[in-house]
Amino acid sequence: MALDPKSLVNDSTKIGTLPQVFYEINEAIEDPEASFSRIATIISADGALSARLLKIVNSSFYAFTSKVETITHAITIVGLAQLRELVLATTVISQFKGVSKDVVDMQAFWGHSIACGLAARIIAIYKREHNAERFYVMGILHDIGRLVFLLNVPDEMKKAFAIYEKGGLLHEAEKEIFGFDHTETGHALVQKWQLHETMAEAVLSHHNPSVEGDESTSAGILHLADIVSHALQLGGSGERFVPPLDEKVWKELGLPVTLLSSIITQVDRQYEEAVQMFQS
């Protein structure tokens, strides 16, 4: 029977739904009647999650001048929308703990994803995009469709790697084997998790960011961030080569060439701490 992205994701026994706590937090944030203390109580009930969030908020990621000691304080100074994205990022990464290194090197995989997220966040801040943390999460998610392949159809993925070894890009080899690539399975997984459609579209389009409308900037930022993270060789999700830059995207983003060196410097500076925060 022919595979398709949705059935591969929906029939998977290897990848489930996100933990209920994420949906409870999300529902509370969307509720205009919910108080900060109620949201903080939901988060604090998960000790591991609240500890990770406080570790992130007290890092150079934010560089606050005084220590943040409670989730309520974190909500006050970081903001609800931003905190939700941090919850999502750390929740997604924790979902895949325990995956055998024989299947995929998760440390390297998340290393690349975190580098991409850092670059996307930096570009989004420069572009004055609303809620830069959303772009960090897009970076975390951008190659997650490859995990769907590696965990569910490893033998077929080995065939894709064999084609890839002969030349070309890995996502092109995936299309040759499956008829679709990891961007499409990633898109299906993000939709299954009921995350924002802008995230799903950016994941789908990060190799070919030709979408129009509100999603075009998000896809373009993620496209550039992916290239930056590959060029820096931080971690790895299977692709050894730097994907080509879409010149149209570069022009549409309107970024000065001098910004690239700043992005690289900032990603380099933040990378090790970010890996420790999000993978611990």
UniProtKB/TrEMBL annotation:
Signal peptide: none annotated. InterPro entries: HD/PDEase_dom (IPR003607), HDOD (IPR013976), RNase_Y/CdgJ (IPR052340). SUPFAM superfamilies: HD-domain/PDEase-like. Pfam families: HDOD. Residues 15-209 form the HDOD domain. It comes from the Bacteria. This is HDOD domain-containing protein.
